[in-house]
Design brief:
The complex is a heterodimer of chains A (about 325) and B (about 350).
Chain A lengths: L1 E3 H15 L3 E5 L15 H5 L4 E3 L4 H13 L3 E6 L2 H4 L3 H8 L2 H4 L9 E6 L14 H5 L5 E3 L4 H13 L4 E6 L6 E3 L13 E4 L4 E5 L3 H14 L4 E5 L2 E3 L3 H11 L2 E8 L4 H12 L9 E5 L8 H7 L3 H11 L1
Parallel strand pairs in A: 2-3, 2-4, 4-5, 5-7, 6-7, 10-11, 10-13, 13-14
Antiparallel strand pairs in A: 1-8, 6-12, 9-11
Helix pairs in contact in A: 1-8, 3-5, 9-13, 10-11
Chain B lengths: L12 H4 L3 H26 L13 H10 L6 E3 L5 H7 L3 H8 L33 H15 L6 E6 L6 H12 L4 E7 L2 E2 L2 E2 L20 E5 L3 H16 L5 E6 L18 H9 L2 H11 L5 H24 L17
Parallel strand pairs in B: 1-2, 2-3, 3-7, 6-7
Antiparallel strand pairs in B: 4-5
The chains are: A alpha/beta (about 325), B alpha/beta (about 350).
Bound molecules: thiamine diphosphate.
Thiamine diphosphate (TPP) sits at the interface of chains B and A.
Chain lengths: ~325, ~350
């Protein structure tokens, strides 16, 4: 079926709640309002207030309670309105969800999914437009999914829900309207498997989340110049699929890594260092990175657009490695 | 659902110690805030700007709060609905519009900040951030600085009822009370947090009850009653200045419009509740009071409205004529120089 990224996530949630009575949703404005990005629309009417729970504005509290509910035998799915507000819950996620299993000698599992929304481009200014995927990917003990297509969104969410570990599931606010083919039945896309979106021979462009779309746009333009780019969607950042990336670089001998957030300490640095240390001999040019301008995201539209990586930035980086 | 608040007769002006000029000045600010806010709402709804959030229904307590402060020394850390408070403290309509349209000269962020996040160093106004409730801690900190520096300034800060669910609310009140800081916490309680009604945010009947947990006074006031609000806030400001510590004020107001221009409140808001809210609109109520007290004639009222409409038009034209920031400015003001 053809459906949007939003519909794919919504369907995955609906099917999960129907199938597994331990699964329930918690979040701000997810009930009658249907979620800030309308992902949970209609679920309250069908499943009631115990399964679709509007919470107080209390991100740390809600994630903390969800951790407890997970210990208590449920499978909570928390919606944090945006990744920017996930910062308020950072202690619960990083110091607790990520560590309780290890620090209880393997006794206590936290099967928790935190869904949240990252990214810029909707003119929401500095504290509503950030990309923190790399922060979460930094932390051992949690997993991080960053779907870039409707198909992957549905399948990765199923994998997250089946996982006995805490998974941070990061949607992108500009992808909700993206449509694509999605099977009606449930299926799983494994965490830690990249997807080659476009095969090519001249350069590997590694991306995730919305930058996959931008990379595909760049690749289409490059093709007109006779440059054949391979575009790789990491799909998840922890675990991440270095084997597929290295195999691609071995073939193309050149790599460009694109991410939306700030360059310094961004996830692209991890990919670049892995290519440098484990794929150095394959390379015919230094790895190039494309990232966002290092400043709080401006509200003004023209300034915001100037701060977010575009296809032309990726093309310039590709030219630099050719 | 919003609690119903008994409408009492307004306090007599003599009770609050304000003269005609101040009483009419507060009315003018309410009119200006309403007209300016509605213009910004319209600009957003017609696609000329991107976003607007309104203070309609909150104006009385906001103007009361500004009036209760000593504008030569006090600090204010508002939240996004406080347009009327800002105007009454001295922020101009032109500055508000420049900010609304994200222009280069926008004094609150040079086009980088969202609308309704005002900062003015000269007026000791510091922008609340978009993540809710953080400003209460900053207010406690400013008050701590005033106290440690031996100054007599009071800090007033505001948030919504939903925002009181955050840990920051507890932490700010606790800290302020432990150190008896000169700070006044005003909750503009409109009964809604986007779509979530108050009874899903808290189990207490009144936010003021929570003050007991911090050993500070908690006062509930009808925040649509300008003069009652003024009395209550003035008392809290005086207490703070006298070194008697913080106060929590639960100002019961109404939200007359959707949460923001991104919201469609028909999805969750019962028509009767909205009708009740509209019946508590603070503007006609205060106007009727001024007329009854013979402080305002119909002719004065018409003249004031015309004058305010001109201010709004001027601000709009002024902002529209001014230029956008240059993309090369994205990273300016990232670090302070020496
Ligand atoms: C930390 C954080 N979580 C969530 C939000 C999203 N949000 C913005 S306004 C709002 C509702 C606030 O309600 P309330 O405090 O009652 O104030 P009101 O807007 O009704 O005046 C929410 C949930 C936010 N800005 N910050």
């Amino acid at each position: 079926m053809n459906m949007t990224y939003r519909e794919a996530i919504s369907q995955a949630l609906r099917q999960a709640i129907t199938r597994d009575e331990r699964i329930f949703l918690m979040g701000e404005d997810i009930g009658r309002y249907g979620g800030s990005y309308a992902v949970t629309k209609g679920l309250l009417a069908d499943f009631g207030e115990e399964r679709i729970m509007d919470t107080p504005i209390s991100e740390a509290g809600v994630v903390g309670v969800a951790i407890g509910a997970a210990m208590g035998g449920l499978r909570p799915v928390v919606e944090l309105m945006t990744i920017n507000f996930a910062l308020l819950a950072m202690d619960q996620i990083v110091n607790h969800a990520a560590k309780l299993l290890c620090m209880s000698g393997g006794q206590i599992t936290i099967p928790l999914v935190v869904r949240t929304v990252g990214g810029a481009g909707r003119q929401l200014a500095a504290t509503h437009s950030q990309s923190f995927e790399g922060w979460f990917a930094h932390v051992p003990g949690i997993k991080v999914a960053t779907p870039a297509s409707p198909y992957d969104a549905k399948g990765l969410l199923r994998a997250a829900l089946d996982d006995p570990n805490p998974v941070i599931f990061i949607e992108h606010s500009l992808l909700y309207g993206l449509a694509g083919d999605v099977p009606e039945e449930e299926y799983s896309v494994p965490l830690g498997k990249a997807d080659v979106k476009r095969t090519g021979t001249d350069v590997t462009i590694v991306a995730y989340s919305r930058m996959v779309q931008v990379a595909l746009e760049a690749a289409a333009l490059l093709e007109k110049e006779g440059v054949n780019a391979e575009v790789m969607d990491l799909r998840s950042l922890r675990p991440w699929d270095k084997e597929t990336v290295l195999a691609s670089v071995k073939k193309t001998t050149r790599a460009v890594i694109a991410e939306e957030g700030w360059r310094t300490g961004g996830f692209g640095a991890e990919v670049a260092s892995t290519i440098a240390s484990e794929g150095f001999d394959y390379l015919d040019a230094p790895v190039q990175r494309v990232a966002g301008v290092e400043a709080p995201m401006p509200y003004n539209k023209a300034l915001e657009q100037a701060a977010i990586p575009k296809a032309s930035d990726i093309i310039a980086a590709v030219r630099a490695v050719l | 659902m919003a609690d119903t608040v008994q409408t009492r007769p307004l306090a007599a002006p003599t009770e609050v110690g304000l003269g005609r000029e101040e009483l009419l000045g507060m009315y003018r600010t309410m009119l200006l805030a309403r007209a300016l806010g509605q213009r910004m709402w319209l600009l957003a709804r017609t696609g000329k700007t991107h976003f607007a959030v309104s203070g309609d229904g909150h104006e009385a307590v906001q103007v009361a709060a500004a009036q209760a402060l000593d504008r030569t020394q006090d600090w204010c850390i508002p939240f996004y609905r406080d347009l009327a408070m800002m105007l009454h403290l001295g922020i101009t309509a032109r500055d508000v519009m420049l900010d609304d349209m994200a222009r280069a000269e926008a004094p609150f962020g040079r086009g980088r900040q969202l609308p309704a996040h005002w900062s003015a160093r000269r007026l000791r106004i510091v922008s609340g951030s978009s993540p809710v409730t953080t400003q209460l801690l900053h207010a406690a900190g400013v008050a701590l600085a005033s106290k440690l520096r031996g100054e007599t300034a009071v800090t007033l800060t505001t948030c919504g009822d939903g925002a009181t669910s955050e840990g920051d609310f507890h932490e700010a009140l606790n800290f302020a009370s432990v150190h008896r800081l000169p700070v006044v916490f005003v909750v503009e309680n409109n009964g809604w947090a986007i779509s979530v009604p108050r009874h899903k945010q808290m189990a207490v009947a009144s936010i003021a009850e929570r003050a007991a947990g911090y050993a500070m006074p908690g006062v509930t006031v009808d925040g649509t009653d300008l003069l009652e609000s003024y009395k209550v806030i003035k008392e809290a400001v005086d207490r703070a200045r006298a070194g008697e510590g913080p106060t929590l004020i639960d100002a019961q107001v109404v939200r007359l419009v959707p949460h923001s221009t991104n919201d469609d409140e028909r999805r969750y808001r019962p028509a009767e509740e909205l009708a009740d809210a509209k019946a508590r609109d603070p503007l006609p109520r205060y106007r009727a009071h001024l007329v009854a007290q013979r402080l305002l004639t119909e002719a004065d009222d018409t003249e004031l409205k015309q004058e305010v409409a001109q201010v709004v038009d001027d601000a709009t034209d002024f902002a529209e004529r001014s230029s956008y920031p240059d993309p090369s400015e994205i990273a300016t003001h990232l670090y302070a120089g020496r």
